[in-house]
TrEMBL record:
Similarity field: Belongs to the ribose 1,5-bisphosphokinase family.
Keyword Nucleotide-binding listed: yes
Designated gene of the protein: phnN
Enzyme type, top EC level: transferase
Protein name, entry field: Ribose 1,5-bisphosphate phosphokinase PhnN
SMART domains attached to this UniProt entry: GuKc
InterPro entries tied to this protein: GK/Ca_channel_bsu (IPR008145), P-loop_NTPase (IPR027417), PhnN (IPR012699)
GO molecular function, one term: ATP binding
Coiled-coil features, chain-numbered ranges: none
Main function: Catalyzes the phosphorylation of ribose 1,5-bisphosphate to 5-phospho-D-ribosyl alpha-1-diphosphate (PRPP).
Keyword Nucleotide-binding set for record: yes
Amino acid sequence: MSDAYKGILIFIVGPSGAGKDSLMAGAADALSQEPNISFVRRLITREAMAELEDHGTISETQYEEMVEQGDFALHWRAHGLGYIIPKTIEDDLRAGKTLICNTSRNQLPVAHQKYPIHVINITAPVELRAERLAGRGRENKEEIEQRLNRKVDELDPALPQTTISNDQSLAVGVEKLVHLIRAVQK
């Protein structure tokens, strides 16, 4: 990892339906007046559902070209989609910013080698996750079952991390996340 990075990259992880996007949207709103904190806009090969998530949409061809050219900080595939975290985060980290990003657990070891990171693991009971997944209307019942039954690897205990149980109101979850972001930032 480069010593040039003065900021920190806070990764938000958790199983499908844990409420990551909702908590991040609420935290982004609550922290919008803090210039040293930014929420990273990922690029995904799927149209964004404006009310549920904020990301840039790219085609499969664009994804493949960016990966081939090394034009990314991190990239991965999940649920049949391609995801990219833009390389521009490196400039923000050099400038000392706190960056928050939703990512895949399998990217954490790579990210930990490249950047100063902290992982916030959002959890919720399976029944609540099922209800949330059904409510967002992106998957059918079978696809929801697959997401709920997908094995989620444990986080490496060597990674700096904190867990939030998102089993109360959205306001309480957002408050917990905002508190943690402020506590973790450099």
